[in-house]
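User: Second chain of the day. Same drill as before.
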Amino acid sequence: MSFASDVRGELARLPAGEICCARSELAAALLISGGIAWRGRNRYAVTITAADAATVRRFFGLLKQHWGIVGQIRTLSGDALNGMQHYQLAVPEADAQALLEALTLLDETALFGVRQVPRDELVRFACCKKAFARAAFLMGGAISDPEKGYHIEIAAPTEALAEFIAAQLTYFEMHVKIVSRKSKYVLYLKRAEDISDMLSLLGAGGAMMAFENVRVKKEVSNRVNRQLNCDSSNINRVMNAAEAQIRDIRYIDGELGLNKLPKSLREMAVARANNPEISLAELGELLEPPIGKSGVNARLRRISDIADKLRSGDEIKL
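Assistant: Same format as last time:
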C-alpha cells in the first residue's frame, strides 16, 4: 500500500464522533465528490463515490448511526474510471432531501436548489472544522511518500469550495495555497513541518509519526552528508596548501639552500617537508618550543614570500 492509502485508511477508521461532526464530514464528502444530482421537483439523487472501500464504509456507518439511513454500496468499474475499481454509497431517494437539509446544503436561491458550500453554522465548532477538512482529504486528498518528497493537497471541484476548505484550515493556522489545475482547484502544502501538522490536525497520528520518522532520518542523513562534504573540502584545501608550501620549500632549498634561512624558518621548512599531511596546529606542536596555528601560518607565509622573490629575482632580506 502507498503512504497516501495508509493515511486514508487511518482516517477512515477513526471513531464517528458527534452528530455535528458527522454532518460536516458528509457535507464535505458530497460536495467534493459532486454527489448531488437534481431530479426535479425537490427530488435528489445523493451518492458518495471513492476509490477506497474503507472511505465509503465510513460514510455508510455515519448515515446509519446518526440518521438511521441504510445506504447501498455498489462497486463501479469501467472505461470512465480508467479501469480502476471505485465504490459508491447511494442514499435512498426517500431520505435524500431531508439529509441535504440537515447538512445545510439546500437553498432555493442556489442553482438547482443546492449550495456550493454549506452554511457557516455547519462548521461552528472546532471539531466540525476538523471533520470537514478530514472528509475533504478522504475524498479529494493526496500526499507524497515522504521518502520521495513533501507534498499534500486537496482537490475541490469549485473555487468557492476550495476557499471554504482553506478557511477551515486557516482557523488552525494552516495557511494553504490554492492553484487552479485543469478543472479543479487544489489546496496544497509543501513544507515538511506544515504537512506533519496537517496530518495531526486531520487525526492521522500514526501516519504523522511515520512521516516524522522519515523526515528525521532524511535530515540526519543530509546533515551527515554536508559534514562529510565539508570535511572532504577542508582536507583537500589543507593538502593543496601543503603541496604549495612544499614546492616553495624545495625551490628555496635548490636555489638558496635551507641553511641560509633563519633558524625559525628553517625548522618550519623541515617540519613541513617531513609532514605534508598534518594540519597547521599539529605542525606547531612539532616545534621546540611549540607555537600556535597563527605562528605557523605566519612562518609559512614568510617562506612563501621568499620563494616568490627568488622566482622573480627580487632582493631577499633574511
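Residues 3-203 form a domain with the Endonuclease I-creI fold (CATH 3.10.28.10).

User: Great, on to the next one.
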